[in-house]
TrEMBL record:
It comes from Paramaledivibacter caminithermalis (strain DSM 15212 / CIP 107654 / DViRD3). Belongs to the ETF alpha-subunit/FixB family. One of its GO terms (molecular function) is flavin adenine dinucleotide binding. This is Electron transfer flavoprotein alpha subunit apoprotein. Signal peptide: none annotated.
Length: 326
């Protein structure tokens, strides 16, 4: 989308079980300043449970608040928030989008920026509008030795802002604004439910005797249930490449590799994992390695005892069937 198609400053208002986080008021304070310089509206968006004090965002400076109301937003679930925020931003088309650099904001913002195909400047400490109406995002760099001034050319211009850098917006209960309720996108099977189903009954992956691990070849979080079924039949647990963890499909408790866990099970089944050195660092000492991959040149086959060139969505169900028949 071009610059002209975007207008306004959008603040993502974070909350904790319905209580609005103070960083949201700080962003509204700064957002108001930027919006006034650009002669543009200030928006806020909140994804939250029923009965959030939405008017507070108007008292703190928002001209319009987009409220995606559903009790599922009581829990901070990145994938669910991401889907909803991305669709809302596509609809609202703001020029600037600000997210607090809280633990959740730091995890959410890159997922949203990546899905929108736009840049993200993380951990900003100042934001300015220059003489040609460009947003300048300022953040410390090189161990805080310099302040980098960054101007992104993709829209919306997205930034995460450190908490307690800006003053909270002043509260004015006479301010008026519009509240627009938007319908949430709530997938039928939610990630939290899937994770509940696939979790390994408290077993530590480093102790598992069988690990059935999935990589980027896994298309949706729900498909992890297929690996879980196989792992259960073999008395093991599931594992994952970092790629699946980064995508938010599964927690880092299951990550195998250099920056994850080092495992040495009796059997390691790698499904849709290419075999990057960082992954191999965590599992190459497994007693028996079976790799399933559609690409015959995947490096995982170099260390596998048995390699199956094929689609995991066909091969894994065949394994399951065979084991069930035994
Ligand atoms: P990809 O490399 O994208 O491979 C996906 C594979 O799936 C491909 O080979 C493809 O042919 C196959 N495939 C696709 N569809 C199917 C299908 N339907 N059926 C069968 N096969 C299919 N990675 C880790 O895993 N663990 C770590 O701890 C880790 N630490 C890292 C630390 C650092 C500092 C860095 C820089 C990287 C680290 N990485 C780690 C990332 C690592 O470099 C790779 O990016 C990652 O392992 C790739 O994951 P993947 O194999 O799932 O994805």
């Amino acid at each position: 989308m071009t610059e002209k198609a975007h207008k306004g400053v959008l603040v993502y208002a974070e909350h904790n079980k319905g209580i609005i986080h103070k960083v949201s008021y700080e962003l509204l304070g700064k957002g108001r300043e930027l919006a006034e310089k650009l002669g543009a509206p200030l928006y806020a968006i909140i994804l939250g449970p029923k009965d959030i004090d939405i008017k507070e965002l108007i008292y703190r400076g928002a001209d319009k608040v987009f409220y995606i109301e559903d009790d599922v937003f009581n829990k901070p679930e990145e994938m669910l928030y991401k889907i909803n925020l991305v669709e809302a931003i596509k609809d609202i088309k703001p020029e600037i989008c600000l997210i607090g650099a809280t633990t959740f904001g730091r995890s959410l913002a890159p997922r949203v920026a990546s899905a929108l195909g736009t840049g993200l400047t993380a951990d900003c400490t100042e934001l300015e509008i220059d003489d040609s109406d460009k947003l300048i995002q300022i953040r410390p760099a090189f161990s805080d030795n310099i302040l980098a001034h960054i101007h992104t050319v993709t829209y919306p211009q997205m930034a995460t802002i450190r908490y307690k850098e800006f003053f909270e917006a002043k509260r004015d209960i006479n301010r008026e604004g519009e509240i627009v309720k938007k319908q949430g996108i709530i997938p039928e099977t939610r990630l939290v439910e899937i994770l509940e189903e696939i979790k390994g009954d408290g077993i530590d992956i480093t102790e598992a005797e069988v690990v059935v691990a999935g990589g980027r070849g896994i298309k949706t979080p729900e498909d992890l249930k297929l690996l879980k079924e196989l792992a259960d039949l073999l008395g093991g647990m599931i594992g994952a490449s970092r790629d699946l963890v980064d995508q938010g499909y599964i927690s880092s408790d299951y990550q195998v590799g250099y920056s994850g866990h080092r495992v040495k099970p009796k059997l390691y089944i790698a499904c849709g994992i290419s075999g990057a050195p960082q992954h191999l660092a965590g599992m190459r000492d497994s007693e028996l390695i079976i790799a399933i991959n559609t690409d015959p040149s995947a490096p995982i086959f170099n260390i596998a005892d048995y390699g199956i060139v094929g689609d995991l969505y066909e091969v894994v169900p065949m394994f399951i069937e065979k084991l069930k028949r035994q």
